[in-house]
Predict the structure of Taurine ABC transporter substrate-binding protein.
Amino acid sequence: MTSLNRRLFLAAGLALGTAFGGAAHAADNKVTIGFQTGVDPAKAAQAAGAYEKATGWQIAWRKFDSGADVIAAIASGDVQIGYVGSSPLAAAASRQLPIETIFVAALLGDSEELVVRDTIKDPKDLAGKKIGVPFVSTSHYSLLAALKHWGIAPKSVQILNLRPPELAAAFERGDIDGGYVWDPALGKLKEKGRVLVSSADVAKWGAPTFDAWIASKDFAKAHPDVVTSFVKVTGEAYKTYRDNPEAWSVDSDQAKAIARLTGSKPEDVPGLLKANVWPLLAEQSSPDLLGGATVKAIADTAGFLAEQKKIPAVLPDYSAYVNKAFAAQALTELSSQ
């Protein structure tokens, strides 16, 4: 068992023995939300304090380097709402952690890529090379899927478990030959390497990935109004961007705010926003997204992770880990305004 898996199992055990969710926070109306460094439209709303205004709650925003760390924090009760990729989400659901998907945050494209040194001209050149990736992340899933597509045995590549900051530093030092990751680490790798494949390519090969906002089931059940308000603000931010993406230029307040929160360069923000698809509230609550499609995507991801021996088993049904009620309620409330 990898150290990451041990950590997730310990977190799961801790979750079973503690009051999971927001019980400790309900009295003083505080909630802890875990976010990551990926660029997305909702970061502008986060920087502007829109979530606090909409919920009426104090929010402690905690930055994480990987979805696995977010999952562990939610499982321990330290975080109530968090941003994760489809791979750690599938792994957590497969271990039956009490979580649910409340918003599909992004359908990933060129925002996650495998960057290698110029000496690697072809996928077959990866054999024997050291490639860094955060384990049980969407990038890890995409890397394994790409290797499978190319007919390259994962054991023939030295795949190292590195968080994004560690990965970027290792590539800078010359300790690794490449890395599959997201910004801002991705941008640092691209300064000295070249893109071998992106998650948009891997999606075309039958292994799409997505990011999602999840919540602890207990917190969502106890405070549905808070979760609905959170989803509503996120959806409104996405609509603002999609209605006029050109307004989010490098000199815009939105791009500057996003750069401050993520560590990305302001000049990179517009391109990174265009790299993914940001689903609107109407799309969230449809059967095609926060319904059968997302449930199937989680199940497919879990199946692949089990095949790669990254999780012990696959559940017969993942529908309990997706809840479109909050998106539907948010859409109803906005429509009535």
Remarks:
- The chain has 17 helices and ten strands.
- The longest helix spans residues 224-243.
- The longest strand covers residues 99-107.
